[in-house]
Amino acid sequence: xxxxxxxxxxxxxxxxxxxxxxxxLSHPLTRPFLERLARDGSLDVAALTVGGALAAVEIGLSxxxxxxxxxTAYDQRFAEGAPGHALTARAVEAAHAAxxxxxxxxxxxxxxxxxxxxxEVRLRTTAMALSWRGRLGLCGYRLRPLAKRGLIAAxxxxxxxxxxxxxxxxxxxxxxxxxxxxx
Length: 183
Known about the structure:
With 183 residues, this protein is of the alpha+beta class. It contains 6 helices and 6 strands. A hairpin with a 2-residue loop joins β1 and β2.
């Protein structure tokens, strides 16, 4: 349970420094649920230490010939040495040695996971609102792509008004959308 708590703390630190948000990790039931799995011995937990200090933690589930990686977190002090990648390599080897035919990085797909992947399964999200708050949230979720296109269009408009080649629009989450004129 202590390593799980360390992993959640390291991941929260990583998210905070990048001004990112994880709806799964921020849910109030996530920590108690994972702690219960850890106490029951249902989680596979691996750690990498450097000079006695925790550098990275991998948390996952093994079942039916597959390993599912729930969380990989690392201490940013060791980022230059890529401890998360080193631990992932060991976790892939350990899962294979234990008889797992599949190492599943789970959604969402991102660059760090794609480097390891030999294939992917496309997913489709279906959502149903059960309350007015749910309908409001679902409306925001569905309008997000439109808002992104609007920000990009605003960047292009700034380009034209300044006679410049590039423009940037910063979102409230800290992301930067960069637009460049194509000629």
